[in-house]
Amino acid sequence: MKTSVIFSTYNSPDWMEKVLWGFFAQTVRDFEIVIADDGSRDDTRDRIARLSADSALPIKHVWQPDEGFQKSRILNKAIAASQGDYLIFTDGDCIPREDFVAEHLRHAEENCYLSGGYFKLPLDISKDITKEDVTSQRVFSADWLRQQGMSIGVNGLKLSSHGLVGDLLNYMPIKASWNGHNSSCYKKWAIAVNGFDENMQYGGQDAEFGRRLRHSGVKAKRIRYSTICVHLDHGRGYVTPEMQANSERIRRNTRRLKLKWTERGLDQYIYPDGTPQSAKEKN
Question: Which of 176, 5, 175 is nearest to 95 (CA)?
Answer without folding.
Answer: 5
